[in-house]
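ERR on first pass: missing label on line 2. Operator R.T. fixed the label and resubmitted. Corrected input:
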Amino acid sequence: MNPTKHLEMRGVRKTYRYFTLDDLSMDIEPGQILGFVGPNGAGKSTTIRLAMGMIAPDAGEVRILGHDIISAQALAKRDVGFVSAEMRLLPHASLGWHMRFVASIYPGWDGTYAEKLVKRFNLRPEQNVRALSTGEHVKAVLLLALARRPRLLILDEPTNGLDPVARHEVLSEFMDVLRDDSRSILFSSHNTVDVERISDRITFIDRGRIVDSSDKEDFLERWRRIHLQLLPGATLPDLPNIVGNARDGQFVTLTTNHFSDAQIAQLGGQVRDVQRMNLEEIFVANVMHHREARGQ
Amino acid sequence: MNIVVRKLIAKELYVNRWLIIGATLSGVLSVLIAATGNKAAFNIGMLTWITTIIAFGVMLGIYGVANERKEHTLLFVLSLPISTGDYVRAKQIGLSLCFFMPWLFSSAAAVALILMHPDIPDGLLPFTVLLCVFMLANFLLVVCGALHARSEALVSAVIIVTNMAVSAFMFTVAAIPAIGSTMFGPTPIWNDTTWTVLAAELVLLATAFLLPFLFAARSRDFI
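pass 2 clean. output:
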């Protein structure tokens, strides 16, 4: 395995009574934002807990910043910031206490940046954590992770519960993190708008299996919806790379995952329109295609 | 012990500081009430004394371990550069230190009450010491159970059983002739039976303290 990779998962399997995460492999290179997208219950949080060493894989290997997460958990997490929408701070302490507590553990704590985030997120360090609203709580957790200046940020649905303005502020901070190209982010979410905005690579997961993984631009370039109006008596030619086919009388909508001029040429004058797809449409079409292929 | 474990131990003392102070004051105050003279005050004082120590231990187990898991504060703690073993060590030592101060002051106050109060027979001393040590072991059992249990129901079951165990211990030990017959005597009698019960308590205490290091600390799935 390449020790310079920030995250490496190879052939990871985790089995529960009603769910199995199977043969999961993925990498994050330094400077990369990997969007990890899947529907609820797809295995995103399980994957992230495996990456953080909170649960151990039944098979396979997980390495963070070159360290095995099981045998060298403390060392591996030294340069990792982890934020989860579920995560709660200690209810009987103030945000200021949390900042001092985390600063005392991480030598790389950036106090100036922390103060800047306090102002930008409109937080009050003296405020007890119990009195924070949901959005403030998420921002407080993010502040504590970001001000460590970690090399790898692992984010599990970090924008859940945030209003649009707060989401914008938080996503902007993530982009700022990536100005230093030695840092990277694993961004898990089912919100494809957020993922599309900040990620440069995207992995789709569904029902415990990775269904597709590619550069964001590659996804956006490859996937198209082709609208056709069939001529009377005409039939569709047998085209490769068509993953969806919806028909309404003579009107047909094809979804392709490898769009090319050759496809259009084969369809000829029947083509009425070719539409680019956004990430959400690609995600849904991709997942449905793989479910059909697996007979689920 | 690494710096993060030490910080987590200090964190336990900080977040439980008011509970520690409150339990210490309540334990000592209960003994003072018991010392005021009449029998009713003695009974009320000793009842609140026992309740304080048991309830404090249960609260530490619930707030310190079970709620941390239930309310996902555990995710924050485990995001720090520690292993599962570090977490268990910090929790076990931190909560034990939290419990120790109120337990020590309350126990010392009870012992002082017996030795100094003219109307309370000194023969109660061995039984009181056995009860105090049992309550310490009982607290460690609560923490041990909470660190191993993954469900709220199991933690509740541990708390109920350990609560009932205190009453059962008091009745059982008082019913042992070698201890019960000397309880209300003018001088404390430290006979073989007393030492045997104390030794059994210390074994229980050590087992409850060490089990999390052997099992919970090595757990592969901690969330």
